[in-house]
Amino acid sequence: MKAKDLAKKLGVSPATISLVLNNKPGISDSLRHSLLEKIRELGCENMLSSSTALPRENQDSSPQSRPVIVYLIYTNFDEDNDRFAFYPAVLEGAEMEARDSHYNLVVLHMSYQGNRNLKRLVEDTGNAVGAIVQTYHITDAMLADLESLGIPCVFVDTYRPDRNVCSVCVNNEQGIFAAVEYLKNMGHQNLGYVYSGKSNDSLLERRRCFHQALREYGLADRRENYFTAGDAAEAEEFDILRELFRSAERLPTALVAENDRLAWRAMKALQREGLKIPQDISIIGFDDRSICTMVEPNLTSVRNYRHLMGRECVAMLRNLQRNKKLGFHIPSLKLELPTALIPRDSVRDLTKE
């Protein structure tokens, strides 16, 4: 069969089929893959040039020969383990997307104290074509180590605007603004904030967004309304919160917490002081973890899509590889996934009083 006959059979122009057969740029990736699949079904693989490959998902390669995506987890011994409640769903999503795309996903645990053998460890995984990096904070030393790998890297829910990094993140601005707007619409004018005191990049962004949201919605930004649990043990955290509330000149009518675990701790601290939620004070969490429906009252929270985040990390790596083949070098890329406010029983509607 000639190329023009194949083009006619597939309903495309001879120019389009020539681009496909010779693996040349000029058409979309989805169209190319679709036409390659149809060519395979017609038994015309012999018309493909040596540089043209069928879409990866259609190759009958064994697991041992598949390209590898490494999932690098950076940990500290003294780090707050609460963040590990966030990442399992991300890892699951990444593993499922990698499997669907016929990649192998290999998990490696790294140390912030240094990884001199990082390149060798990654090379030992096989044909590593990209890396997903899980870390609470991006350091210059980490970036130097990753650059030595010579493969595209995508960070999970952390970003540095002053460095060329690619990341898939929660849209913290959207989530915090939705929480503040919801509280204002429910009649709350005096808002407080409960934060961890940690240097997690994503949590720092949530704090900045809370300041900004108060300004843009015309609400007072009172320093005495910011409460931290710090690094103390759980029982001491309740005491810290209790003392801060006692010292506040005016108790806020509502609190926004940096995450659901902090919201739960604040709820317990307030309830131990005899305060009722939401009758005496309202509270909103962030992340919409399962704990939200296990506490009384059920916690209003900001939902994010952690499973989708893992899938999008793999998709971004694939796009970076594709762009490189097309001659485009994109050093910095940030994809923000949407959030959604989930109202429950922990917020009092003051407009009806």
Automatic annotation (TrEMBL):
CDD domains registered for this protein in UniProt: HTH_LacI (cd01392), PBP1_LacI_sugar_binding-like (cd06267)
Molecular-function GO term, any one: transcription cis-regulatory region binding
Coiled coil: none
InterPro entries: HTH_LacI (IPR000843), LacI/GalR-like_sensor (IPR046335), Lambda_DNA-bd_dom_sf (IPR010982), Peripla_BP_I (IPR028082)
TM regions (residue ranges): none
SMART domains, sorted: HTH_LACI
Keyword Cytoplasm: no
Keyword Ribosomal protein: no
Ranges of residues in domain HTH lacI-type: 1-43
Keywords: DNA-binding, Transcription, Transcription regulation
Protein name in UniProt: LacI family transcriptional regulator
Organism: Candidatus Acutalibacter pullistercoris
